[in-house]
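Schema walk-through. Below, the input block comes first and the output block second. Nothing else is stored per chain. Lengths vary across the set, and this one has 117 residues.
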Amino acid sequence: MNATLDKIRELTASIDNPKELKFFHGVVHKIIMQKLSILELNLQQQFSVGDSVILESRKGNLKGEVISLKQKNIRVKTEDGTNWTVSPSYLRKIDNPVMKEKVKQKPFVNCFGVRIT
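--- output ---
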């Protein structure tokens, strides 16, 4: 990684023309975005509808279930009923069957409207 960064630094240091530097920036940005798309597509192919997952968010890790696969993102329904549309890079599959059951269990509401978990 450091060797790659050193090469990029060398290349940018050798460019004296602002137009050429902007062009170089655009090319590098395009290459990075293409590579990122490929990596995220490969990640997305590891998920299926119904998979139990952990969603890494600003609010902490949330348990949920994959409800649909979009072109670039995955829709997840968390235990509290919130739907999230996220990049696959923010998800991890739950492989532990005990954790999977906890995610799939839905709270029972009795005839008085009291939630029983």
